[in-house]
C-alpha cells in the first residue's frame, strides 16, 4: 500500500487544469486566472484629492487665520482641466481631479466657509492630501498574475483594471454518487426501518464548491450494480470528476469500483492512512473517479487530504498549496500510532490542539467540532500532553 505522501504526489500529477474560458466579473468569484489581468489605464487617472476640503496653491498660504475666495468646485467624476486662479481656493471632494495650479488640499475640518469665502483657522499638517496620477498603478501594469484564485480581495484589484471580461480556468464539473441500500435523504430515514440519513454527500457537495468545482448533481443510489452502472455511465458523459461515496471496501455489496470495469486504471487503489484506507482514484478515459470510503469521518478526512489538492489543481490552482501542514502542540496525551499514518480529529484552542472525544471513523458528532487533523507517522510513540505536532486545517 502506498503512503500518504506518495498518494498526494500522484494526485498532484493528475490534477491538471481543463482549458480556459472568458467570464464576466459576476461569474469570476473563486475562479483561477488563466491569464494575468492588466490595467487599461493608470490609477488615479489624474491627480485627485484624498480628502474633502479646499484645493489651494502653496504660494497663497499665509499665517492663520487667512481667507481666500472660492472660485470653483470639483467633485469625483468632474472632468480634469479646471484651473485654479491665483489667490483663490476650490471647493473639492475626495476623488475629485485637483485643478491645475493647486498643489495642496486643506481638509474642511481646518476651515470655515461663509458664502464664497473660506477662512483657514487651524494649521494644516504636512500632508498635501493629493494622490498623484498613476501612483497606484500605470497603464499596462500587471495587477493580478495568472494562477491567482479570485477571492474577494483579488476580485477588487482585478476589477480596478477595467477589463470587462477575464480569462479563467474552466471549473471541473463534478457528479457525486452516494451508494448504499441503507441511505435515505436527511429527514426521511426515521420512517424507514434500517435506514440512516445520507450525511456525507451534503458535506462533500459543499466541499466541492468551496474548492473550485462545479457540482452538476448528487445522486443517492442503492447497492444494485445495474443502477450504479447506469448512473456511472451517465456521470462519465458529463463530469470531469465523479466522486463515489461508499462501497470502496471489500464487502460483497461494495460495487463502487467494479462498475468502472474489472481492472480500473488506478492512480492508486488504496492508501496507508487511518481513517480512509479504502480511498481510491482511477482514470476512466479523460475522466477521473475518486472513491471515498463510506464511513463519514473517513470520507471527510480523505476529501480534505486528497480531494482538496485534486480540485485545486483541476480548477487551475497550485494543487500542492491545498495541503499545508503547520506546527502546533497537542493539549492532550497522544496514543502510539499503529502501522498506518493516522490523522486525528482535533479542535484548535488557546491551549493547543484538543483531541475530539471519538476518533472512530464512523463517528459523525465530532466532525462539526473539529477544525484540525493531527498527523501521526506510522510507529510514532505515545506522547504526553503538550507534545509538538504537525497538523492540517480541516
Ligand atoms: N473486511 C474488511 N472490512 C472493512 C475494511 C477492510 O479493510 N476489510 N475496511 C474498513 C474501512 S477502513 C472502511 S473506511 C470502511 C469503508 O467501507 P466502504 O467504503 O465500503 O463503505 P460502506 O461499507 O459503504 O459504508 C461504511 C459505513 O458508512 C456508512 N455510510 C456509507 N455511505 C454513507 C453516506 N453517504 N452517508 C452516511 N453514512 C454512510 C454505511 O452505512 C456504513 O456504516 O470499510 C471497513 N470495512
Ligand atoms: O480507514 Mo477506515 O476509514 O479506518 O474506517
From TrEMBL:
InterPro entries reported in the protein's UniProt record: MoaB/Mog-like_dom_sf, MoaB/Mog_dom, MoeA-like, MoeA_C_domain_IV, MoeA_C_domain_IV_sf, MoeA_linker/N, MoeA_linker/N_sf
Entry-linked SUPFAM superfamilies: MoeA C-terminal domain-like, MoeA N-terminal region -like, Molybdenum cofactor biosynthesis proteins
GO cellular component, one term: cytosol
Catalytic activity: adenylyl-molybdopterin + molybdate = Mo-molybdopterin + AMP + H(+)
Pfam families in alphabetical order: MoCF_biosynth, MoeA_C, MoeA_N
Keywords: Magnesium, Metal-binding, Molybdenum, Molybdenum cofactor biosynthesis, Transferase
Enzyme Commission number, as recorded: 2.10.1.1
Cofactor(s) this protein cannot do without: Mg(2+)
Taxonomic superkingdom: Bacteria
Keyword Transferase: yes
GO terms (BP aspect): Mo-molybdopterin cofactor biosynthetic process
Keyword Signal: no
Span of domain MoaB/Mog: 175-313
MF (Gene Ontology): metal ion binding; molybdopterin molybdotransferase activity
Pathway annotation from the record: Cofactor biosynthesis; molybdopterin biosynthesis
Classification via PANTHER family: GEPHYRIN, MOLYBDOPTERIN BIOSYNTHESIS PROTEIN
Membership in a protein family: Belongs to the MoeA family.
Role summary: Catalyzes the insertion of molybdate into adenylated molybdopterin with the concomitant release of AMP.
Protein name: Molybdopterin molybdenumtransferase
Amino acid at each position: 500500500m502506498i503512503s500518504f505522501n506518495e498518494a498526494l504526489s500522484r494526485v498532484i500529477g493528475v490534477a491538471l487544469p481543463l482549458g480556459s474560458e472568458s467570464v464576466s466579473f459576476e461569474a469570476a468569484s473563486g475562479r483561477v486566472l488563466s491569464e494575468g489581468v492588466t490595467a487599461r489605464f493608470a490609477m488615479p487617472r489624474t491627480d485627485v484629492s484624498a480628502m474633502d476640503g479646499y484645493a489651494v496653491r502653496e504660494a497663497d498660504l499665509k499665517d492663520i487665520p487667512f481667507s481666500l475666495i472660492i472660485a470653483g468646485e470639483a467633485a469625483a467624476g468632474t472632468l480634469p482641466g479646471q484651473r485654479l486662479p491665483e489667490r483663490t481656493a476650490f471647493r473639492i471632494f475626495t476623488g475629485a481631479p485637483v485643478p491645475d495650479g493647486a498643489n495642496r488640499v486643506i481638509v474642511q475640518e481646518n476651515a470655515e466657509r461663509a458664502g464664497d469665502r473660506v477662512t483657514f483657522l487651524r494649521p494644516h499638517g504636512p500632508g498635501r492630501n493629493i494622490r498623484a496620477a498613476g501612483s497606484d498603478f500605470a497603464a499596462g501594469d500587471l495587477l493580478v498574475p495568472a494562477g491567482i484564485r479570485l477571492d474577494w480581495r483579488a476580485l477588487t484589484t482585478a476589477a480596478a483594471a477595467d477589463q470587462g471580461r477575464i480569462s479563467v480556468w474552466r471549473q471541473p464539473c463534478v457528479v457525486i454518487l452516494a451508494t448504499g441500500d441503507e441511505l435515505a435523504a436527511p429527514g426521511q430515514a426515521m420512517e424507514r426501518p434500517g435506514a440512516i440519513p445520507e450525511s456525507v454527500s451534503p458535506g462533500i457537495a459543499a466541499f466541492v464548491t468551496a474548492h473550485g468545482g462545479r457540482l452538476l448533481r448528487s445522486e443517492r443510489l442503492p447497492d444494485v450494480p445495474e443502477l450504479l452502472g447506469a448512473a456511472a455511465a451517465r456521470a462519465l458523459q458529463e463530469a470531469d470528476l465523479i466522486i463515489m461515496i461508499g462501497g470502496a471496501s471489500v464487502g460483497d455489496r461494495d460495487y463502487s469500483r467494479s462498475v468502472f470495469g474489472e481492472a480500473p486504471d488506478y492512480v492508486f487503489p488504496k492508501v496507508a492512512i487511518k481513517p480512509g484506507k479504502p480511498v481510491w482514484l482511477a482514470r476512466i478515459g479523460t475522466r477521473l473517479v475518486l472513491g471515498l470510503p463510506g464511513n463519514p469521518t473517513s470520507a471527510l478526512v480523505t476529501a480534505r487530504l486528497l480531494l482538496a489538492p485534486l480540485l485545486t489543481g483541476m480548477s487551475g490552482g497550485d494543487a500542492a498549496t491545498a495541503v499545508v501542514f503547520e506546527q502546533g502542540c497537542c493539549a492532550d496525551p497522544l496514543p502510539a500510532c499503529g502501522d498506518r499514518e493516522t490523522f486525528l480529529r482535533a479542535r484548535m484552542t488557546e491551549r493547543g490542539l484538543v483531541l475530539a472525544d471519538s476518533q472512530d471513523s464512523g463517528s459523525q458528532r465530532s466532525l462539526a467540532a473539529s477544525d484540525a487533523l493531527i498527523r501521526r507517522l506510522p510507529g510514532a510513540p505515545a506522547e504526553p500532553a503538550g507534545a509538538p505536532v504537525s497538523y492540517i486545517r480541516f
